[in-house]
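Exercise 4. Each item below gives a protein and its sequence. For each, produce the structure-token representation.

Item: Cof-like hydrolase (Enterococcus aquimarinus).
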Amino acid sequence: MGSRKLLAFDIDGTILDSNKRPLPSTLEALDALRKAGHFVTLATGRSRFLAESVIRELQFENYILCNGAAGFFNHQQVFKETLDQKALTTLIEVCQARGIDTAIVQLDQSKRLSSFDLEKMQDAMTSFGSTASELGGFSHDDEVYQALAYYEKDCDPLFEGQHPAFNFVRWHEKCVDVIPANGSKARTLLALAERLGIDRADIIGFGDGLNDREMLRESGIGVAMGNASLLVQQEADLVTKDHNHDGIWHALKELHLID
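Answer:
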């Protein structure tokens, strides 16, 4: 593997362990990749304000946010796809009529639009170290990169296929991300690779969640963490150890990218 690679890492459940910290072996691996001249990027469902601490602490200059709706190269935004305002308004109205809480996510803030079940929202958000956002309104001037809808799996049929402008991606038993129908981390990762002159075969994607499946499938090598579900693992070329047991380091060692 002598050519220059583009390596993309999910945050939660991948680059962070279950204590929401990067393992020492992960930090060592990132440093080795950079010194070898490879490009590294985050690829997360988080928005910028929720990813900011990881971007800063792990010194990422490139990052894909909001499940691919925003892409940054050298801290400059090079990709943007916001949600269709009319379709989003309809979705919010449908959710509110059913007593389902929603929130809108912008790059640097999020706002919940209702308070039907604050405990449910809090449960989902604390799973990755955040909290339910402040109550606010939705303006047509808002640039919304993704939305959140707080409902369990038994409500999936009420939404899947009913809102063609959107894709609903579950990341918690009580919440889904709402992203553009053709949006994904993979789409933006491929755009970043093209910008860098990196062949698709030289993209390596790491992830553990349902929102990582396209990225693992479209990368030259997709690496699923050992803590990923079977649905995610079956999209990968390689399944490594979990996020608590040096999974990133072991995979990079197996791929001969670090010593």
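Check: The mean pLDDT is 96.
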